[in-house]
Amino acid sequence: MPSSVVVSRAAVVGFFKGFFASLGFDGFHASILFFCVVFLTATTEAKSRDRCSMNTAQKEVAYRLGSLFRHGDLAYHFEACEYVAGKGLALGHAGLSSCSSSVVDMLKSYVSMTPSSALAPFLHTLQKMMGTDRCDSESGLLEADFCAVWASESLKPDLQQLQWDLVDKLLMQPSEALSSTLALKLALSRAVVFDAALQLYDLGIPDPVTSLVEKTNANLGRQAIDKLVSLEDEFAWLSEFLNVRLQHLGGDVGAASDEGWKSEIARVKVYEYLMHTRQYALSNVVGVFTNDYIVEIQSGHLAPQEQANCPSANTPDPFALHRLRHLRGS
């Protein structure tokens, strides 16, 4: 940290301590009062950053789009189970990896809740394979038997809730925390950060979202993790972040992978469409009209207590849904 910053902070601390002392507080109580003010200020700032977190309806849009990109429709496929080279068994609507300790812990929790579960006999095998070189290859041997049981058990609310909890812990919470650090105000911006985490987790790329953010900020002449002050800053940041995602998928990832991975570009194009049609709030009816996807998502009207306290940069393109409905003949 530059010494000038340290000196500046020390000067501020000395000034406020002296100010409180001039009001009759002794040194000890002046220090306590000063740090209370600092704590309250920091807490207020954190709450201000977090007040734009996506609400339930907006998160649903992000989840539904993720399902569309992975499964081809808007349903939540809790029952999904398939062998994916390099990942083991991809489970549930988010394609959670059976070689992950988090997924094995989730299954342990479920079996402890439901000891008679037909998944119980598989747990020991999954634990032995987890974290080993053979986890990926040997998971393929389990596919036929395990996936049939998984599909049946995933009809049960307890296992569905555990899937939700794990996706929230692994992907949504870290994405929202990163968005809050950047002070993102638009639900669309936050959904784009979440989708990047979801997509790259699905492709088996470890924790790349922060590096994409850093590259975006560097392209815009910003520090690695820098707060966005105005909506104009955020519009520029969102556009550049989508560009960086496209470059990453078409170049860094695409060059080292098969053509199937390059098709992942289509999902980024969906978010570009939402940006260009100004569907920033992801509320009510969200419409997508691209070369690859034509879909409407009914996210519902927000309850009064869920209305965002953030800038209302959510004026939609008045013709976007008209074009969509005309094409669908409705």
Keywords:
330 residues; mainly alpha; three-stranded antiparallel sheet; 13 helices; disordered N terminus
Commentary on this structure:
The protein is mainly alpha-helical and 330 residues long. Helices cover 61% and strands 7% of the residues. It has 13 helices and 5 strands. The protein has helices at 3-22, 27-50, 56-71, 101-113, 120-129, 135-153, 157-181, 187-202, 209-219, 231-253, 259-262, 265-276, 320-328, and strands at 81-84, 88-91, 96-97, 284-289, 294-300. It has a 3-stranded antiparallel sheet with strand order 1-2-3. Strand 4 (284-289) and strand 5 form a beta hairpin. Helix 3 (56-71) packs parallel to helix 8 (187-202) and helix 9 packs across helix 10 (231-253). The N and C termini lie far apart (60 Å).
Secondary-structure element string: HHHEEEHHHHHHHHHEEH
Class by alpha and beta content: mainly alpha
Shape: globular
Radius of gyration: 24 Å
State the oligomer: single chain
State the end-to-end CA separation. Answer: 60 Å
Helical residues, percent: 55-70%
How many strand elements? 5
Order of neighbouring strands in the sheet with most strands:
1-2-3
Mean pLDDT rating: 78
Point out poorly predicted stretches: 1-13, 33-49, 301-308, 312-328
Strand content: 5-15%
What is the helix tally?
Answer: 13
Q: How many strands, what sense, and barrel or not for the largest sheet?
A: 3 strands, antiparallel
